[in-house]
Amino acid sequence: MRNGNLFVISGPSGAGKGTLVARLAQRVPDAWVSRSMTTREPREGEVDGVHYDFLTKEDFLRLAEADGFLEWAEYAGNCYGTPRKSIEDALAAGKQIILEIDVQGAFQVREKMPSAHLVFIVPPSLEELERRLRGRGTEEEDVIARRMEAARFELSHKDEYDKQLVNDDLDTATDELVAYVDSFADRK
Ligand code: 5GP
User: Fold this and answer.
1) Which residue lies with its CA nearest to atom 2 of ligand 1?
2) Residue 181 to residue 55: CA distance in whole angstroms
3) Which of 46, 88, 152, 176 has the most CB within a 10 Å radius?
């Protein structure tokens, strides 16, 4: 068995984090991708218990109050959090734990677990990011504007991450991410 580690993957929505994490999970056999909880409405095609656990704001805040989250944050008007219990279980099992979370959550994780590795996925440009967000076709204009504002905020923090990865070519970015994860897991 390899050493278990915890990796945080952040970057603006539309940067391609989801795709990269899915590819990473296929390539790294001991990877374990955390499933977050959110108060956001499911997008078309999203399944409760698969993409997220979707819950009401009331239930979310109750769980936060009971210290049920490793970290949580508000992003573009909705709450998102990482359930603490599942992470503790995955740590005990020695997995390569992958959290796909925002900048605020990433820094909370770093506080609590200083050995976490923080990776920032950089979109090729803000113009390309906006094009991808529109291309998704699932977001209203005001949602796109909020997400672009959040993107500028997130990008202003990218230098505080341990690694930045530019996602202009998906295959190259995947290779780099897999190599990064493996470099820690294989350490003696
Ligand atoms: P989306 O609504 O596009 O699925 O996610 C919006 C943002 O919330 C993304 O940057 C995503 O990484 C982040 N996010 C997803 N789950 C969590 C979580 O559990 N905690 C935090 N802090 N951010 C999350």
Assistant:
1) 40
2) 31
3) 176
